[in-house]
Q: What sequence folds into this?
């Protein structure tokens, strides 16, 4: 029988829940949430238990260059593939293990996170509290309700989130965004499609790096997140060279097939770039099993 997060990491879950101070209701007053170093250390333990030797981060020099630009006052983005709720944990740990400025890079990460992580399950909320984040009300969720009070709540949360983003993005931070807006689920191809809103980030930031994630430590299930299946694997994190956001966007729009929806054209181009990186990195990763 396959191990789940709950069955494999029972002790760690108890420790995290006991230590957690995570908010389980999001309001416009708590959208910015500082990470908890203790909970991060427990998650490091979990990721380390699953990550096989030969796991690596390729492109550390690009992360260091992006951090230097952030520290000089530029607004900097990390656009990351999203396969599981361990993705941020993997990137953070691998940066620190890589040496160099890895600790500084990890400390500079500010993730844009959907409020589902805080509100759906108190255990998931506890784990999400490990990392500094700005919580938003996802557009997909807003589109699924006609409750006027909930729509108003979502709008207030997102206004507060954008104000928080503006305050922090010029303070040496690396703002991490999952351009798909959700974890990839093989039974739903739309989960690998970029959300249109990612275009607004490209327009309002200066520089970016793409990050592909290969190797699966956590397999998404259709049930509760805590029932995701764990497995040991070789992980490969690949970081692209630093890219000028305006130049990237201008190039996309100059050749866009979908001229009627420029925002979606940019989102599609981002996901295409990540997919190309993923395919190339996977070919290299599989050689490590030979």
A:
């Amino acid at each position: 029988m396959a191990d789940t997060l709950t069955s494999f990491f029972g002790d760690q879950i108890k420790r995290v829940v006991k230590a957690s101070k995570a908010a389980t209701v999001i309001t416009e007053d708590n959208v910015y949430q500082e990470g908890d170093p203790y909970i991060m250390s427990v998650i490091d333990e979990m990721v380390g238990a699953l990550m096989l030797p030969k796991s690596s981060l390729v492109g550390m020099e690009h992360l260091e260059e992006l951090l230097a630009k952030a520290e000089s006052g530029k607004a900097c983005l990390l656009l990351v593939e999203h396969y599981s709720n361990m993705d941020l944990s993997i990137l953070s740990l691998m940066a620190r293990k890589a040496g160099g400025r890895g600790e500084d890079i990890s400390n500079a990460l500010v993730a844009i996170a959907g409020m589902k992580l805080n509100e759906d399950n108190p255990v998931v909320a506890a784990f999400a509290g490990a990392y500094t984040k700005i919580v938003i009300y996802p557009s997909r969720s807003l589109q699924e309700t006609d409750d006027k009070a909930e729509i108003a709540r979502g709008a207030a949360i997102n206004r507060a989130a954008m104000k928080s983003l503006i305050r922090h993005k010029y303070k040496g931070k690396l703002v991490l965004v999952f351009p798909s807006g959700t974890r990839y689920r093989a039974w739903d191809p739309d989960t690998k499609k970029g959300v249109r809103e990612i275009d607004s980030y490209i327009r309002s930031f200066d520089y970016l790096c793409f990050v592909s994630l290969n190797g699966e430590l956590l397999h998404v299930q259709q049930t509760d997140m805590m029932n995701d299946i764990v497995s040991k694997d070789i992980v490969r994190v690949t970081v692209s060279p630093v890219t000028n956001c305006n130049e990237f966007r201008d190039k996309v729009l100059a050749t866009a097939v979908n001229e009627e929806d420029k925002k979606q054209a940019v989102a599609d181009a981002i996901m295409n770039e990540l997919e190309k990186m993923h395919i190339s990195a996977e070919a290299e990763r599989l050689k490590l099993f030979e």
About this structure: The longest helix spans residues 262-287.
